[in-house]
What we know:
Elements: E1 2-5, H1 10-22, E2 28-31, H2 42-45, E3 55-57, E4 64-65, H3 67-77, H4 88-105, H5 111-120, H6 125-147, H7 163-177, H8 186-196, H9 199-204
Parallel strand pairs: 1-2
Antiparallel strand pairs: 1-3, 3-4
Helix pairs in contact: 1-3, 1-7, 4-6, 4-7, 6-7, 7-8
Amino acid sequence: MKIYSFWRSLATYRVRIALNLKGIVPEKVIEVNLMKGQQREAEFRAVNPMMAIPALVDGDGPVMIESLAIIEYLDETHPSPPLLPKDPRGRARVRGLAQLVAADSHPLIVPRVREYLEHQLKHDQQTVTAWCRHWHTQALTGLETHLKGKETGKFAHGDQVTLADICIASQAAGAKFFNVDTAPFPNFVRITDEVAKIDAFARAHPLKQPGAPATV
Length: 216
């Protein structure tokens, strides 16, 4: 198994958490430096034409892309511990919380969007940062509302870690990167603090990866 990764990639952070929870150690980690534009080079475009990471290769099969799809593959091929509830409603809720982050919010603040806003639309850095903070806050507001429900326990859904918690952890890291105030979202903060105590989450954190700065 090999994974295309970069320390700052929030989507790759999600996959690293899942790998750690499952006890899977990839044989090879290939860095794709998003800050240097390596995702646009022909070698990686042959891996993923969308020029996005993570990408995962397991054996002789096709390249797998998109963090949620990769995590569900890992969950199906390495079912312990499970990352989705057993009941259909529970799975739908967890997937919904996960997609609120990975499908609704995160895609709006990734490097290619920020670069387009800056270089093509000629917005200054202050405007681009305001854009990112706005969409982070929208996601946090939505998550906080859902996390007030009775289905929430120690973690986002009950008392076991799920895919939703993985995505919440990545949302928290992104909020930190863009200096978004999370204090108005106490349920989100509580769950973030809980997962931070788990080794699989702590080891996967962007700032614990090779090449990461001491702080951002």
